[in-house]
Model the fold of this input.
Amino acid sequence: RRATRDQRRGGGRRRVFGRPGAGRPKPLIQDIFRRGQEVLVQVIKEGIGTKGPTLSTYISIAGRYLVLMPGLNRVGVSRKIADDEQRRRLREIFHELQPPKGLGFIIRTAGIDKTKKELQRDLAY
Done:
């Protein structure tokens, strides 16, 4: 009798560390997309040799002080900005700018001391 894969690995339930969902099977690509369907992607890593480029459907476009993320419709502040008062100030300023609907933004650490006018200029760019 042959051992199952779980038995070869020590059997029982395994603890999986890392990203959430890392232990779950990934869906097949044909279950996600239809042939001929247009999909907006961003090249994350260039291809090397016979390997093609690494692509992502999570688009992010970095500006000087902001990162644009189409389709997310939320505003975040860089985790590196630890001061709660600064985070609150940046969120308030950004909401006053009335960003377009359907677009997500992250305020980068480079934007920490920037004025409303400077953030507006980066948003318009």
